[in-house]
């Protein structure tokens, strides 16, 4: 397993609380604040995280998917092994629909499209990732321009990851020439400095309830 930035760096945990968006006997849907790990990091100072906070109230909560430290938004947390297994299979089958909202530098040339660029760990710049045609794993992101602010030269974009590679949305948008505001890992310094946080938020998720088989969908608007 390659080291991630969440293993290597001390990442101060946000004091902003998580929000419960949905709760029943077998699962939770929560809204994670930015600047909070989903699970504990390897660094001893990175033990405060979303799942540990949730487990104080819901001791059996488990993680089935993650958001980066810098990313806010929706996460599904199973409360039983059966539900964990079922939702894991939905993710593996790519039947869970998710989309994100991001603020990026510049104006997109096309209003919508698919970014299909393989991604691999950047051995020369760990813990970063890069587009790599030779060793990269297949990676696809659907994108759609939502609005453009000409005064700031910034675009609001909806992003739907077809695959779920590490840092996929950041690297794919960078490859298009549109770095995310507040991205201290990939954006040029002037773009990174335009926001105190990464402007990336997991806004929408849809999946099938493991017991009732009802289709559940949730939206939490981006806080930016």
Overview of this protein structure:
The protein is of the alpha+beta class and 224 residues long. The chain has two domains: 5-94, Pseudouridine synthase, CATH 3.30.2350.10; 100-200, Pseudouridine synthase. Helix content is 16%, strand content 31%. The chain has helices at residues 5-8, 50-57, 81-92, 168-175, 189-192; strands spanning 19-23, 27-32, 72-78, 97-105, 112-116, 119-121, 129-131, 140-149, 154-161, 200-208, 215-219. Strands 1, 2, 3, 4, 5, 8, 9, 10 and 11 form a nine-stranded mixed β-sheet that branches. A two-stranded antiparallel sheet has the order 6-7. The longest helix has 12 residues, at 81-92.
Secondary structure layout plus pairing:
Elements: H1 5-8, E1 19-23, E2 27-32, H2 50-57, E3 72-78, H3 81-92, E4 97-105, E5 112-116, E6 119-121, E7 129-131, E8 140-149, E9 154-161, H4 168-175, H5 189-192, E10 200-208, E11 215-219
Function: Responsible for synthesis of pseudouridine from uracil.
Catalytic activity: a uridine in RNA = a pseudouridine in RNA
Domain Pseudouridine synthase RsuA/RluA-like: 27-174
